[in-house]
From TrEMBL:
Family to which this protein belongs: Belongs to the MreC family.
Residue ranges of every copy of the Rod shape-determining protein MreC beta-barrel core domain listed in the record: 123-268
PANTHER family cross-referenced by the UniProt entry: CELL SHAPE-DETERMINING PROTEIN MREC
Gene Ontology terms: cellular component: plasma membrane
Biological function: Involved in formation and maintenance of cell shape.
Keywords: Cell shape
Source taxon at top rank: Bacteria
GO biological process: regulation of cell shape
UniProt-listed InterPro entries: Cell/Rod_1 (IPR042177), Cell/Rod_MreC_2 (IPR042175), MreC (IPR007221), MreC_beta-barrel_core (IPR055342)
Protein name as catalogued: Cell shape-determining protein MreC
Amino acid sequence: MLSLLKRYRRPLIVGALLLYPLVAFLLSGRKGRDPNPIDRAVIAVTSPVQQALTASIEGAVSAVRHYLDLRGVRQENDALRLENLQLRASVQALGESRTENERLRKLLGYAEAAAGPEIPARVVGVNPVAKLLSVRISGGEKDGVFRGMSVVTPDGIVGQVIRATGSYSDVALVTDPQSRVAVRVQRSRARGTAAGAGNGPLKLENMLRTEDVDNGDLIITSGTDGIYPPGLVVGRVTNLEKKEHGMFQGADIVPAVDTSKLEEVLVVGSPYSAMAQGSAAEGASK
């Protein structure tokens, strides 16, 4: 028993000092007497402890309230942040839809103004092999697309159909090293050839040194190769090199169409494709 009293001596003393003012207050309330010196001494000792306990309790309550308020604000901020992300995604989707509508409207306007049949198609794949620069489009023989037809956009030429199946076709781009397009200078009507050179500008070949060509001249298709209709935009002349000797002069042609960003195209007819379609129809009838 004595060991327990020694161990808990301080808590018992503090508890007695804290309880004494309460008991004294209750007793004084009944008798109505003034506090004696012992009461005053106990109150003087215990008041700071009570004040410290009260301040600690009030501080703890205030901290809990602040924590709950901050938690509510944090949850509200998280909800607002999520709503902001959703709104930004919606705005981005609307902007992409508007851009696509503008492209399709431009494509439709070009198709309506064109003289021959125009078959719209969407780019669905890109050939990963650098040996052949080509894309795959969502239009095939069942849509009237055949090997040899030319592929264009309202901005200019894209390439030539090299393979057609029932629902899809492969298009060799004008930038492919094997591509050759008969062209002319729109201003001077001088004729030449636009040759693919891989990713980058085309090469102007077979342009006689005596022909009138300048940097910035617009190059268009001449229509003499039987692939592209005449008058389609190919690009503009840059890095013109007029040689002092030889028959030809050289230059680069910056393509009018960025083939790395193709999304929608038009397939147009050509004499070769018409013959191919006629041959296929004859073979089917036999």
